[in-house]
Amino acid sequence: MIGGVDFSKYQASVTVDAIRQALAAQGPVVTVQAWRNDGINEHVGGQLARAKEAGCRDLSIYILPNYEIDKHGSLFVREALGAVSANVDPRELLFVAVDVEPYPSMNRASLPWRMLRVMEILDATAAAGLHGIVYSNKGGWGAVMNGSPQDWGLVVNRARLWVASLDHTPTITDEAAIASPWPGWAVVGEQYEVGAWGGFSMDQNVWLDEFINERRRERDARLAPPPPPPPAPADPCSEALARLERIRQIVR
How far apart are the C-alpha atoms of 142 and 136, rounded to whole Å? Predict the structure, then answer.
């Protein structure tokens, strides 16, 4: 398993030294909140930049959508990536997670819109050339999406799960009970405990090696320079003149 940490706009002033301590103790994957239900995290670009300064290459973000506002899911992604791009190339991101958990005023939103917003965010993430997953668990997903189990497969069948457990145990393969409606095999990461480094609180995570390594390969491919253009075809007239000149040299 590969470890990591995540934090939100509440850790707006997180320092390079604190992130460096977390990376050394916990692992290389850093995930930062880019959009929360009350608005964009305007600090996300700086937080990711400080993570890079601390030595992190495995960057990622999560989005907690607001279901009450009439905002197409693609706008959440556009605004999140726009905030990231102020400091970091969005192509560096390993993944974008949709955070599906309840918040106090959520029930003012129509239930069908909630599933639609998640689908739109996943679609927009894919359109941006990035990998989308879902952050949730059985309780959080049920609280947000209750009443529409016939539609759950629209998300479950296309996005893997980063499961929230906070059970103080870094495990992934035995989380089926809290992963529902995802099957246990679809869990790629777990948030399992809260830690603190350098005076800043950060949630601790573990990830499947194959999931992170595949995301790394995708990132490296996105960042690779384009291949050089093929050489221009030779000018037939130039070649003919060169052959004629060689013949003249022989005749002389």
Answer: 9
Rg, C-alpha atoms of the chain: 24
Is residue 27 within 8 A of residue 2, CB to CB? The reply is: yes
Rounded Cα distance between 252 and 246, Å, is 10
- Helix extents (H) in the chain: 16-26, 44-53, 73-85, 111-127, 138-145, 153-156, 176-179, 209-223, 236-251
- Tens of pLDDT along 15-57? 999 999 999 999 999 999 999 888 899 999 999 999 999 999 9
pLDDT tens per residue across span 128-186 = 999 999 999 999 999 898 877 888 988 999 999 999 998 888 988 878 889 999 999 99
- The CATH number assigned to the domain with range 2-251 reads 3.20.20.80
**Helix or strand or coil: residue 66?**
coil
Cα of 216 vs its chain's centroid, Å: 11
Domain ranges of the chain: 2-251
Residue in the structure block whose two tokens are 């909140």:
33
* Cβ proximity of 116 and 79 under 8 Å: no
Distance from C-alpha of 11 to C-alpha of 21, rounded to nearest angstrom: 15
> Do β-strands 29-36 and 2-7 pair in parallel, antiparallel, or remain unpaired?
parallel
Beta bridge partner(s), residue 7: 32
